[in-house]
């Protein structure tokens, strides 16, 4: 081993990114590429009664105006087994297949023109008359029901009775708003047909599934679609599914017989690529006087669309975070006339942890107990829900390391008791956790006589550092310097990879890369100090390649694998003006083996920034009269700016989870967002004495 | 975006003539707001006349005051040491605006004419009396957290978004306008119109009118001044409430006071009654509190913007205490 794993290596794709050499989906320009602009519906529900495309068709540069009236009926071949990124109940939105309008902003026409400006101008000339129908655009007005798949309820013990008998209880409702991914790179697709074969340059977190989805839409063999996506400018889950605009690109290119490019506008992104659903949660906790939990009830109600059931793991933290004999969770959906929500960083878990960890803070207050002591008193020594031991768990170390670095012991227990000048000071903490998953994956590795190697997998790098980490793993196994190894990803022509989501890439693709590199070494008989050049010469070849396909074993039947963290936040509050600032956050994490401390730290920093936004800034301003997000732009949908960010400290507990996979890494992405918002919300309570249970905690909520 | 013609103006008189004669022709300077308006389909001019090459970039500061060319960039004015010394609230208002990149592009004249951030004004799929007269005002009973509590009407409660104009109104600055009928000078305070029953008429400018400069009189209250901007995030956001304040204090007594507020009104809003409650009184926390307390008098909150009624007096009070050395 060359010891590349564990080293703080800078991003290998950094120079390409900062020099502009890295090409993102919209930057691929096949010869004769045309441009597409979309027309979005302006009513939330109804039918298109009339369309007037005459002016648009006559506008300069226009090649086609595509609507449901002239679009071909597409096969939309059903799946034998649905891709795991798609909801299991309902049907995805179909493009230009009928007059139905299911939400405001739904693409109802597409204009293809020589330039983007011409396309957008012509799109504005399309006249639409709607037969509007009564729409469900409020959460209160939506129908509440259990999800059709899964039932939505779990029980351990008898939580309701236990709550009634508990010595100390808290019971409260927490509200989480609709949030949007808002990655810097807008979603874009470039489509090129060559006969019955289609190439898509698309912003996606899963090229393999993207190809299969489009093949199903058009009734093509799966291998007729190639998807290429070498770089992703952030996605946070918005690139998991294959959204309607990808189909529109392929359809438009087919109809005009030229390659086309679709690039969504910022406003269109608010209705085109999903969002984190508005979720209301009740958490009721019962405890003994010594703090031990006796009852935990967590109920979540989340919005979904009228045509698909998006469900998420909002309630899994309630089931596994703490030791408790009596646990009841209940999940409900509210149908609204909106586009379908989707996974957004730490989907469900971050939402659920906000409610659970704020409730734990409330319980600590009710018990007059230190919030950290309360967590330790309820430390889960095993996964009680699945009745499995942890494959590894260093959460105690996280609590200790985080508390020490933060100076938690300096916290005066009473609210409003700490000050810095005119500012009220608050300390808050929260537990973080996220399940560690692993999927089957493939990779190939080739070594060359010049002592370089090329390693490939159709994986994705939306920012966490896949390029860098995989290069490290390969260099480590191949015993080569990093700069002799080149890793390629983001192309369906490469060995198949699983979805780049759910923090599974390191555990899945990483182990495939490891296995492919081991296989090529074995094939060469490379060992005993022989160079690759010598080994290849002996084999009489100038290169040697091996491919590996790895699958998880039965470890998930024997162990429960999760990443853990402990978050500590300090806030300063100016109660006169309602201003909340966060001068510092400390996070200590157990993510198993850390492959690259530099990119791992960056992941957690990004999560803290996102968590600060979740706590204090982010929300879609929804007008139910129009069924529209009104602040669909970067000026009014607020995310943190540099000036909002204070000192962020990231610590890693030593870990190496070989029970989970041969690399020992548990996955590190979603965990970064988890626990940040409740730590901040709890700190706001400590600073002000006011318990604010609705996110974001805005100025007017703090103003007293 | 509707196709438009573009031409660079050779001289101010030529530019003025051109824009006055062509319907839907408009000037463009830094373009930081215009480009958003074009992309969102809020504006669709037939022609854009680029005035960036006109010689109107000078920043002059003398004993009587300052003269800011309309094409001086926000960043250059904010960084000018004479402006920082003589008119701190102007420099602070500029630095609290937008981002460094935007301030490098945006001009002083253009900044005064920045359009409202009302969510409905900016979304052409919704009605808006200001953008499309007679269609209605959804902000009255909608997502109006950013909207005005002062100076509104039943037709429009769009907030004037800028910071600089608030400081200029507080300091009795003038705006110099060149037009088809010659040059004229009006107080900045008279540049913007409250919406009333014609919210689409935002300023008193006539077709072809070109802002050429802003002049700011010097004085003790300008020298001892401060701009406080309250918002959700620490930078790069429009004001929820802001206060431009200046005090002239002699022997512990307030001789002159300047108070104007932003983020809460349909136009840059001078609070003369607060100034009057300060002048002639001793500089003290109590006097400031009593005067600032009335800042929201006459406010008409409409739902989500109701918090501004409480926030505004506190913003004014904090700004006055800061400039009075009592914070």
Detailed description of the structure:
The complex is a heterodimer of chains A (704) and B (327). With 704 residues, chain A is an alpha+beta fold. The mean pLDDT of chain A is 97. In chain A, the strands form 6 sheets. Chain A has a 7-stranded mixed beta sheet. In chain A, strands 7, 8, 9, 14, 15 and 16 form a 6-stranded mixed beta sheet that branches. A 5-stranded mixed beta sheet of chain A has the order 17-18-23-24-27, sandwiched between helices. In chain A, helix 12 runs parallel beside helix 13 and helix 16 crosses helix 17. Helices cover 26% and strands 26% of the residues of chain A. Chain A contains 18 helices and 27 strands. Chain A starts with 13 loop residues before the first helix and ends with a helix. Chain B is α+β, with helices and mostly antiparallel strands and 327 residues long. Chain B has a domain of 104 residues: Enolase-like, domain 1. Chain B contains 12 helices and 12 strands. In chain B, the strands form 3 sheets. Chain B has a 5-stranded antiparallel beta sheet. A 4-stranded antiparallel beta sheet of chain B has the order 9-10-11-12, with helices on both faces. A 3-stranded parallel beta sheet of chain B has the order 1-3-2, covered by helices on one side. In chain B, helix 10 packs antiparallel against helix 11. Chain B is globular and about 60 Å long. Chains A and B meet through helix 3 and strand 25 of A and helix 12 of B.
